[in-house]
Amino acid sequence: MARAQNKSDSIIKWSVVILLPLTFLLFSLRMPPTGSIGAAPEDTTRLAPKQGENSKVVANQNPSPMVEYIRAHKRIQRREYRGIDFKLQGVLPKAIDVFVPEKDLKRRRFDLLIHFHGAGYVVRYAATRYPHALIASSVTLGAGSSVYGRAFRDSTVFPTLIDSVTSEVADRLHRPVKIRRVILSAWSAGYGAVRQILRSSSNYKRVSAVLLLDAVYASYVPEGRVLAEGGKIDTSELSVFVHLAQDASRRSSGRKFLMTHSEIFPGTFVSTTEATHYILEKLGMKEKAVLRWGPLGMQQLGEARRNHFVVMGFAGNTAPDHIDHLQGLYFFLQKLMRL
Question: What is the DSSP letter of 31?
C-alpha cells in the first residue's frame, strides 16, 4: 500500500507517450493502488474535444499511447452560474468550493453533494441540472488517492464538513437549512476520500448515495504483477465497496450506488474494469453487453444492475475517455438518484 502511494494520477498521462522520449516510460509517479488517472482537475478547460486531449507527462504503464478521434468527447463550457458560490476554509487542507444554484435559493430542505476531485465548474453545472434542491460542494486536494484518504483518516472530519457547509449556507440564506440526503461522488483519485469515509460505520450511516466515476482501483499482489501473469487483486482495498454494493443491491435498501468504468488498463495497478468486476463477482453478478449512447458522446458497452446498485461500462482506453466520466457528472448524478 505504502509503495503504491502515488499511482492514481498515472493513467491520464500516458496518452502522449508517443510524443515523448522513451526514457519517460521509466518514470513512475508511484501512486497508490487507489490511484487517480487525472491531470490537474482544472486542466479540463484546456482540452481539445476533437483533437485527443494530449496530456503532458508519461508514466510507466503498458496501454497503447494512441489517441482516437472517433468519439466526440464533448465538454461542459466553463462559465459562471448564478446562485451562492463561496469557498469554505479550515475544514480540510484546501478550501472547499460550495455552490447553491439560483433555482434553489428559496428552499429550506436540500440534498448535499460532496464531490471529490475534478473541476468545480463541472460540479456547479451538475447542480443546476439536478431536479431537487441541492447544495453542491467540490473538494480537490491534489494528486493521488492517498491525499484524499489521509484527509478523512479522522472520522470526525466528515461530520464536521457536513455541519460546516450546512451552517455557512444557512447563514447566507438567513434561515435554517435541513439536509435530506448526503451524496458522495468521486472521479479518479477522489475515491480515496469516499473509501475512507465509508470505513467508519457512523459516517456510512449518514451517506444515502455514492457515485464513482471511473474511480475505483487497487494494488496487484505482488506489486505490479498483472492478473494475466499470475498476480492477484489486493481485495482488502475494495472491501468497503463490496459491502456498499451488497447493501444497495437489496430491494429494501435505503442506499444507492452507481459505478462507471472505462477500458483503460494502467498495467501497474488494478484497473477500474478489474476492480469493478471483482465487486460484481462477489455479488454473483456479471456485466452484460449493451450498445447505447451515453452523455456527451460516450459509448456504453456494458451494464449490470440489481435494485439500487448499477455498474455502467464505457468504451475507451485514452485520456479523453477517462475525463468523459467527470464531464458526465450531471447525467450520472441524475441516474443515481433515480435508482
Answer: B
Three-state DSSP class for 14? helix
Span 33-42, pLDDT tens digits: 333 333 333 3
DSSP, collapsed to helix, strand or coil, labels residue 252 as coil
Backbone angles phi, psi at 106, to 5 degrees: -95, 0
Q: Which three cell numbers stand for residue 178?
A: 435541513
Q: Which DSSP symbol is given to 299?
A: E
Separation CA 220–CA 218 (nearest Å):
7
Q: Say how many Å lie between the first and final Cα of the chain, rounded.
A: 34
What interhelical angle do 329-337 and 120-129 show, nearest 10?
A: 40
Q: Domain 2-337 adopts which CATH fold?
A: Rossmann fold (3.40.50)
Neighbours of 324 (CB within 10 A): 29
User: What does the alpha-carbon distance between residue 159 and residue 164 come to, in Å, rounded to a whole number?
Assistant: 8
For 183, list phi and psi in degrees, rounded to 5: -120, 125
Locate 294 and state its grid cell.
451515453
The DSSP result for 11-64, as a single string, is GGGGGGGGGS-GGGGG----B-TT------GGGGGG--TTTT---S---S--S-
Question: Which amino acid is residue 2, in one-letter code?
Answer: A
Q: What pLDDT, in 10s, does the model give residues 147-203?
A: 999 999 999 999 999 999 999 999 999 999 999 999 999 999 999 999 999 999 999
Q: Which helix (H) or strand (E) holds 173?
A: helix 157-173
Residue 143, φ and ψ in degrees, nearest 5? -90, 140
